[in-house]
Specification:
Helix content is 43%, strand content 15%. The protein contains eight helices and seven strands; from the N terminus they run βαββαβαβααβαααβ. It has a seven-stranded parallel sheet, sandwiched between helices. Helix 1 links the parallel strand 1 and strand 2. Helix 2 runs parallel beside helix 3 and helix 3 runs parallel beside helix 5. The structure holds nicotinamide-adenine-dinucleotide (NAD). Belongs to the short-chain dehydrogenases/reductases (SDR) family. Pathway: Lipid metabolism; fatty acid biosynthesis. One of its GO terms (molecular function) is 3-oxoacyl-[acyl-carrier-protein] reductase (NADPH) activity. Homotetramer.
């Protein structure tokens, strides 16, 4: 009998990755492509890595979300795997955080993700199969000064994932969360050297994460090998949030 790699997938399964124009999302899209998925990547610009169907969609706009799904369904087929990765920060100390700072982050990270999940599961429920991965953050459970809005949104994703996992588990749909720590991307490049040094000192692995560290975890959670994993929060943080 030939051993097969359970993290590869039946050829042609359709995956949609949000925020795929750069950083972690681009790496996930590339990783899933290499694993044999047909991959669509949405972002506001519509840019996506080579081989990935790039679709322009702002997840804060319900009509753009609907149009994006219609395009992916037409060009690749029904979405079987959703990686809801798009997210933003708008850091500000609590006393100076405006309603706009709060609403903007919640609108993208939480409400936008909800909208993607609701739309994707419509078809997954009929197919009685689905894999959903939500991109949270270690900030969801350790907190982060200046990121009250961001941490709240990322904690909300954990509650969302666990509720989806309970509601749709009987339909063959899994819903899990990946919680990265400090990953080197445009998002973290913006931080000061002082903040970066402080993080590095607290990471047991003694290095910042790379986008591929996150992509490998996502690939596993999307695979048939992870069929009995649902409602889980998988930290990819070099141990930064350990013990929480
Ligand atoms: P990034 O800023 O490099 O990329 C974010 C992506 O999201 C971009 O493609 C952008 O176009 C897209 N996006 C943002 N708002 C959108 C909207 N309204 N509609 C559609 N697309 C939108 O960020 P990154 O570092 O690659 O982070 C990706 C995800 O991982 C985010 O959810 C982030 O919160 C999370 N995360 C990152 C880190 C880190 O250290 N980099 C740590 C924990 C969690």
């Amino acid at each position: 009998m030939t051993a097969t790699d359970p993290t590869t997938i039946p050829a042609g399964r359709v995956a949609l990755v949000t925020g795929a124009s750069r950083g972690i999302g681009a790496e996930i899209a590339t990783e899933l492509l290499a694993a044999g998925y047909r991959v669509a990547g949405t972002s506001r610009s519509g840019r996506a890595p080579d081989g990935v169907l790039g679709v322009s969609a702002d997840i804060t706009d319900p009509e753009q979300v609907e149009a994006a799904f219609a395009r992916v369904e037409e060009e690749l087929g029904g979405v079987e795997v959703l990686v809801a990765n798009a997210g933003i920060t708008r850091d500000m100390l609590l006393m100076r955080m405006s309603d706009d700072d709060w609403d903007g982050v919640l609108a993208t990270n939480l409400t936008g993700t909800f909208r993607m999940v609701r739309r994707a599961t419509r078809r997954m429920m009929r197919a009685r199969f689905g894999r959903i991965v939500l991109m949270s953050s270690v900030s969801a459970y350790v907190g982060s000064p200046g990121q009250v809005n961001y941490s709240a949104s990322k904690a909300g994703l954990i509650g969302m994932a666990r509720s989806v996992a309970r509601e749709l588990g009987g339909r063959g749909i899994t819903c899990n969360v990946v919680a990265p720590g400090f990953i080197s991307t445009d998002m973290t490049d913006e931080l000061s050297d002082e903040v970066k040094d402080d993080y590095l000192a607290r990471i047991p692995a003694k290095r910042f994460g790379e986008t591929r560290d996150v992509a490998h975890a996502v690939r596993f959670l999307c695979s048939d090998a992870a069929g009995y994993v649902t409602g889980a929060v998988l930290p990819v943080d070099g141990g930064l949030g350990m013990g929480r």
